[in-house]
């Protein structure tokens, strides 16, 4: 596997289900991100982990719970979701540097539908 | 707070022609980075080009160039010699500081390349 992988690619769940999205990066990066992409809206940054510590939580509802057990893996645990949470969830990684720029490499996303 | 505005929801271009995708930004930071990403229908975001706020020369990457006009707060993407494979959504983004750890995206421009 190369780059950033995400599983599953598609997920349909009921409002009472609990599920998890998985992201894995094979790039040796030290930062990982979760984004939400809804139709006709800009990408919204949800969570940022740098060196496995959460450094950013953009006021995301508690029904979304991230987990970063190591620098290569990132999870998004979902429970009691609402239909408006249906979206494409993108994972990204980057190498945080003290100078220069950090382009983020994205996975293919998980298309989530909440019924 | 940072903001990206992309005013062209859709653009058409003939194959082999050049096209300019507009992006204006708003930020109170002195140091920032500007990014362009491409998102094909498969969903994955692909990094194209970066411009730092202190870079005096416009960035270029192959057929992509960034027309950076700092005083006007614009960072337009120019694609030369368009190809059918360039058909995709294009997103402009701004990152805090020079690194771009936390990106704010625009709403995107859907580009269609025609024969």
Write structural notes for this entry:
The complex is a heterodimer of chains A (115) and B (115). The model of chain A has no long low-confidence stretch (mean pLDDT 90). Chain A has strands spanning 4-7, 10-13, 18-25, 31-37, 44-50, 53-57, 64-70, 73-79, 87-94, 105-106, 110-114. In chain A, 0% of the residues lie in helices and 56% in strands. With 115 residues, chain A is mainly beta. In chain A, the strands form two sheets. In chain A, strands 2, 4, 5, 6, 9, 10 and 11 form a seven-stranded mixed beta sheet that branches. Chain A is globular and about 45 Å long. Chain B is mostly beta strands and 115 residues long. Chain B contains no helices and twelve strands. Chain B has strands at 3-5, 10-14, 19-21, 24-26, 32-39, 46-52, 60-61, 64-69, 74-79, 88-96, 103-105, 109-114. In chain B, strand 5 and strand 6 form a beta hairpin. Chain B is globular and about 45 Å long. The interface between A and B is medium-sized, with 27 and 26 residues.
What are the key terms here?
heterodimer; A: 115 residues; mainly beta; seven-stranded mixed sheet; four-stranded antiparallel sheet; 56% strand; globular; B: 115 residues; six-stranded mixed sheet
- Poorly predicted runs of chain A: none
Share of helical residues of chain A = under 10%
**Can you write the helix and strand succession of chain B as a string?**
EEEEEEEEEEEE
Radius of gyration of chain B: 13 Å
Q: How many helices of chain B does DSSP assign?
A: 0
What profile does the largest beta sheet of chain B have? 6 strands, mixed
Rough outline of chain B: globular
Sheet/helix structural class of chain B: mainly beta
Would you count the extended β strands of chain A for me?
11
How many beta strands in the DSSP annotation of chain B?
Answer: 12
What is the average per-residue confidence, as pLDDT of chain B, rounded to a whole number?
A: 92
- In N-to-C order, the SSE pattern of chain A is EEEEEEEEEEE
Structural category of chain A: mainly beta
Largest sheet of chain A: 7 strands, mixed
Distance between the termini of chain A: 32 Å
What fraction of the residues of chain A are assigned to beta strands by DSSP?
over 45%
* Helical content of chain B (DSSP H or I, runs of 4+): under 10%
Please state the overall shape of chain A, judged from the principal axes of the Cα atoms: globular
Strand content of chain B: over 45%
The average pLDDT value of chain A, as a whole number, equals: 90
How is the quaternary structure best described?
Answer: heterodimer
